[in-house]
Amino acid sequence: MKIAISGKGGVGKTLLASLLSRIFVEDGYSVLAIDADPDANLAATLGFPHAEKITPISEMSALIEERTGARPGQAEIYFKLNPKVDDLPEKYCLEYNGIRLIVMGRIKKGGSGCYCPENVLLKALVSHLLLARDEVVILDMEAGIEHLGRATAKAVDKLIVVVEPGRRSVETAYRIGKLAQDIGLPNVAVVGNKLRSQSEREFLISSLPGFEFLGFIPYDQALVDADLANLPLVESSQQIITEVRNIYRVLLPITSGTKHNKLDKEHKW
Amino acid sequence: MKIAISGKGGVGKTLLASLLSRIFVEDGYSVLAIDADPDANLAATLGFPHAEKITPISEMSALIEERTGARPGQAEIYFKLNPKVDDLPEKYCLEYNGIRLIVMGRIKKGGSGCYCPENVLLKALVSHLLLARDEVVILDMEAGIEHLGRATAKAVDKLIVVVEPGRRSVETAYRIGKLAQDIGLPNVAVVGNKLRSQSEREFLISSLPGFEFLGFIPYDQALVDADLANLPLVESSQQIITEVRNIYRVLLPITSGTKHNKLDKEHKW
Predict the structure, then answer these.
(1) A175 to chain B nearest CA, in Å?
(2) Would you call B228 and A199 a contact, using CB atoms and an 8 Å cutoff?
(3) pLDDT at A141
(4) CB within 8 Å: B167 and A228
(5) What's residue B53's pLDDT?
(6) Are strands B136-140 and B212-218 parallel, antiparallel or unpaired?
(7) Dmax of chain B from CA atoms?
(8) Beta strands A188-195 and B99-103, pairing class
(9) B108 and A118: CB-CB below 8 Å?
(10) Taking residues B35-50, what's their average pLDDT?
(11) Nearest to B200 among A77, A199, A228 (CB)
């Protein structure tokens, strides 16, 4: 099962990625979470100790040079476009509470004419994680799908676009839906977040008529308060956890036909 | 007066940029607003008609080729690193309610080893707008300061980092503060947004001890409701307007020593 999560900045992508990771692990799945959003901090939200000190792959200059033949920042013309990456997940993942995590760092966006060693390594690593690994992979992305391409699109079981009640996040959802279509990624669905009322829910449903909704997560001040008090976000709101569990149940049938490396643990649901 | 606005995705950068643009124009200044955040929509927030149909500079392939000598997406080795841009503001800005707007589009982030024609043109344009223009320039950026460099840092009168009550936005503020220091940009200040209580305000003050606070904008459901009803955001909340006017008054003395092209209009404040 491969899940990619995108949406406008601030809508709650990282919270959803964290809670889904926790629920899959609790249910006995082997989970690899990937932080591919430099503006977020999946490690901190998952409760990893010293999350701010983790070096992302994109900043490991020696590794990038070893694998691509070019040092980041140097104007090299030639470097390997298919660097070896299959050993990187084991070497560079961190583990906490049963969740394994890879922090990717900043990928450069934009036109296909812009290659650089960091991007080549990150893209090769994402391809490997989506195409060759058999655990549950949860990819926390930016407000786009720059990490994905035609070759990896088919491997994504669900691209979840998180939206909040607001026009800008709906516009971003349409833009992401269009990008997904362009690369041949058909499995796009939406999760509404920070909902305060029935009318906000209806706004989202009527604004996104072409989209499948996986669920609606309520706004809960308890989450904000837990954040300010530096308490674990993933445990702060029972009503949010309950709703993400519902989303998990909707996602689960997708795994039935795929390899997912489920461990021998009693099914809790 | 040159103001750059940054902060984590979703904190309210575009709203602050819009309201400040409006207030400067109302007060008789000539304002050029720059949308440099592809995940936002400054045009829509400012009420520009058909905002979704505006072509950003970064997607004007013919223009980029004309000015840099290289077509975006082509693997050209040589192109002009100092393209002519001084005529672009007049040619490609849009105007509505007295505010002139340039939509930049996506700039590529990351290491200095990655050049491409789009980036070269956008960076040259931002340099020109900051260094050679004499109106009030308000730059709405992403969660970073990729558009700025050592050459333009001195021209920014204030880099405003917007934060909301939440650890992630505070972490982003520290990261932006560090980037600003790296390029020699000393005038960094913070605006707190979406505040619901005195304790949230105290959280921000105690979390950012090294930062100057320009003001605190309250959370107002009226803003969300106006957005959902597709009403103009910049007019939706009187308490938010009042607080942004206070921030404007704090910013104003900065202009006294600089050229600002103020028109002959009665001072309203």
Answers:
(1) 10
(2) yes
(3) 92
(4) yes
(5) 87
(6) unpaired
(7) 56
(8) unpaired
(9) no
(10) 90
(11) A228
Q: Which of B41, B75, B144 sits opposite A171 (nearest CB)?
A: B41
The ipTM (two decimal places) reads 0.80
Q: What is residue A264's predicted lDDT score, i.e. its pLDDT? A: 44
Mutate one of A46, A48, A58, A114 to test the B interface: name it (highest B CB count within 10 A).
Answer: A114
Helices (H), chain A: 13-26, 42-45, 61-68, 88-92, 117-131, 150-153, 167-182, 198-207, 221-228, 238-251
Cα(A156)–Cα(A255) distance, rounded to whole angstroms?
11
> How, if at all, do strands A212-218 and B94-96 pair?
unpaired
Closest approach of chain A CAs to the CA of B262, in angstroms? 32
Please name the amino acid found at residue A250: V
Candidates B40, B58, B203; nearest CB to A228: B203
* For chain A, percent of residues with pLDDT exceeding 90: 67
- pLDDT computed for residue A244 by the predictor: 98
**pTM of the full structure:** 0.86
Do the beta carbons of residue A230 and residue A236 sit within 8 Å? no
CA–CA min distance A159, chain B (Å): 18
Beta strands A94-96 and A99-103: pairing type? Answer: antiparallel
Q: Tell me the torsion sign for CA atoms B173, B178, B182, B184.
A: positive
Q: Note the pLDDT tens digit of each residue in B132-172.
A: 888 999 999 988 888 888 888 889 999 999 999 999 999 99
